[in-house]
Structures
1.
Amino acid sequence: MTNEVRAVIELKITPQRECGFGKIAQKVSAFEQVEACFLMSGGYDLLVFVKGESLQDVAAFVAQDLSTIDGVISTATHFMLKTYKSKGLADGVSCDGRLAVTP
């Protein structure tokens, strides 16, 4: 899949009795579209990194799969439009489109 779409999804969830956030996090993590799932502090509970074949594919996954899990209160999806740095590596292009010069 060369033109895959990636997104970051914030999930607000209700903790489950006796297992906290773990049960819902396991359900979320089991989907093949999910690359990573993190428990977070702050305004939301889980941060989920997903991939799909198109914007519509990811949107359908969120609407039909993630948001329908018992205990999920809300979702906020952020699509990744351009990568400037990934896994410690920068893309090597300056703002004017020229290759960056490094010593």
Note: The chain has one domain: 5-90.
2.
Amino acid sequence: MIRKCLFPAAGYGTRFLPATKAVPKEMLPVLNKPLLQYGVEEALAANISNMAIVTGRGKRSIEDHFDNAFELETQLKNTPKEHYLKEITDVINNATFTYVRQKQMLGLGDAILSGEPLIGNESFAVILADDLCINEDTNVLSQMLKLYDKYQCSIVAVEEIPINESYKYGVINGKLIKNSNDQYLVNEMVEKPKPENSPGNLGIIGRYILTPDIFQILKQMQVNNKGELQITDALMQQAKIGKVIAYKFKGQRFDCGDIKGYVQATNYFAKSKGII
């Protein structure tokens, strides 16, 4: 049973400067809700209530957002505007939040390793909030939890990508599992390969389920030539012994770490709510 979800939220969000100079990219709103709240709600819908958040310098607004605001609540109580706070108060009442700071920006692998004190010796989910995923029936994390129950190993969510954009993703190659059309036993993973060196066209997106041995693997790794500890490299060590499944998820994903994807997500939700 997966009880905890880790949210790496320490990055600088440089593609959104100057907006992210003082506002964490995870707190950028799609309509009236921050990206990170969408991720937390996805975890809650998957019956995970323990949210472990890896933050960094200048990220205090994340903690403030997932905390009670007594003055504001008092001001809005018994007024026509009281319902505006309902969504976030429901999240606060149903989830537990713990925090740790990443000491240095050394890549996603280091951010995940920084979360070890919050996770302990158990398997856990990871959500990257700037990948906003939509599915009207069963959300992406819930789909992955069913696979974890079956395989009891690390799971990564993948989608088909244009081969000329392979340099943006960790890319996998694997063998399609018998009697499945969306599950692959991973045998190769490459972080941000050039198109001519890409092992395929299945790119990893920001949804993972990781087994606890990933922490020990990360501790034994060296940073790459960019000074980063990559989770893809750690997962490749698990893949060598047949312990990583790639899952082509059902749903739609918006890359909200990119301005174009962020605008697409905003338009999607605006249309779905009848605003435009």
Note: The mean pLDDT is 95.
3.
Amino acid sequence: MPVESPSAAAQIIVTIIPIVGIIMGALVLFSYIYYNYKQKLVMIEKGTFRKLNFDLDAFSLFTGLLLFIFGFFLTIFFLVKEGFGYSLLSGIIPLACGLSLLIYYIIRMILNKKANAE
């Protein structure tokens, strides 16, 4: 029994769905950034704006550990499942990103210790 190919209308709909999703996601992101900007302007005019302190060291440590562990286990999984191939990149990429964030954190700590010692 031969398998029928999908109709032309179904193929068009399947093609349009990701395009519409990307456009809608971009609109949502733009709207969020724009209204956040307007909100900050109003807060500055009223004098109620306070800049939030962002702890870059804690962020790089947490994100680096999370990405490193996630990437490590994905790498092991794809290495066992499929061996060496392109699928291994889905584990190596987060592994490398996590490792680079952890290296950044270590370098920051070393530089902070030297600056405090002087």
Note: The chain has a mean pLDDT of 90.
4.
Amino acid sequence: MNLPLIIRAEEHNEKTAILTTDGAFTYRDLLHTSSQIATGLLQNAEDLQEQRVAFLIPPGFEYVATQWGIWRAGGIAVPLCISHPRPELEYVITNSGASIIIAHPDFESILRSLPPQASLAQEHNLRFILTSETLPSNISRLPEIDITRRALILYTSGTTGKPKGVVTTHQNIQAQVTSLITAWEWTSSDRILHILPLHHIHGIINVLTCALWAGAECHILSKFNAETVWKRICDGDLTLFMAVPTIYVKLIAAWETASKERQKTMSEGCAKMRLMVSGSAALPVQVLEKWQSISGHFLLERYGMTEIGMALSNPLHGKRLSGYVGKPLPQVEVRLVDENGELVPAGTPGEIQVKGPGVFLEYWQNPEATAKAFQDGWFRTGDTAVVENGNYRILGRMSVDIIKTGGYKVSALEIEEVLRSHPDIQECAVVGVADLEWGERVCAALVLQGSQPLTLEAFRSWAKERLAVYKVPTQILIVEELPRNAMGKVTKPAVVELFC
């Protein structure tokens, strides 16, 4: 039988599926073009039998039709990042063992010049297809695709080593999508603006595939531009918007430079939406509060990763808590465990582990890493969180964000949030630096703002008072090597290093 995604699309034939600067495309257009692409990929074969097809296409209708065409031919889609340099593209193509490459003409030169393109063509009969080539007019009989088959390989970088290929099946994707559609109440009347990269799970699953599964409209921009996004929001016809914190920061900056009249129109456009979501990184409280004052929306934060889809979410209806990522989504089980794999009580930090039908199948051709990623059937995320009043709060990556200092475990993310509340600090990043006495010292890189210089004594007093609750030992709350002027005051360089 056809994939459920295809069956559902057939129910919305004449409805608009994709809007781009090139025009509007219906679900019928998407089904027809994807079947032509599938026919071209098959070349009279019955089934691609999970051959990997890498594709480098900018966001738009051609991207979606190609992705669907690969799936309908029985292939595994391997999306490439349009901004990646040659070595990274080469790594993904080679590691995935792609036998076919599909490219937009804009990227023909970079792909044709890749060393693996030549070697794979010779050794593995690699095909190179341009999206500008004429598509077949006669549609082949397309294979029946079981949903347990592999569908997608996304490459994710851990904190160490080369990126690993995360393999998800059609069944995994269906579980991830239906979980979000249930939780966020997607319908065919929704219209979402898509501004996210299409080689990451956020853009592929949360926005694109959820929209098309629901029979909604997906308005795709080829690249992010704050003014363009605001213009679309001001049109007042969007119902959903999803982005990362960096994008919200840029949208806030553009709003602040607009005229009062324009600001009013911008805010009214936001108010017409039913939901705005932030994810993929921690959302600073000051950004959340500023966006709420502009848009009237208390951004919905959620937590997920490439291997599991989305696992936790603040509620669509009901109270959302700043700094929290809510509760487990439908079909998802979540637990927190200590270093011995034992469950931790509420209020105690532990590693997030996840189980459910949305969890990925394997790391591509890496059984050792796959086995290491699971504990008794639970996926080990490597992230630390704590449950408070039934809601999860992320403390950071175990490997980099949890700093072990003076016998305490300190969350770099929590310290960053505190430091950002200082009126003279615009932005910061906190890391642990090896130290013989303390194990690790807490190090922060600061971007300063404001007209008054930051004085050493005032900052030390301020930091001691506010960081004490996070059990940062007071003995190491010292500031070193800050550039000072002749008066002994810390000057205002773009970035200063602070050891505390």
Note: The chain has a mean pLDDT of 88.
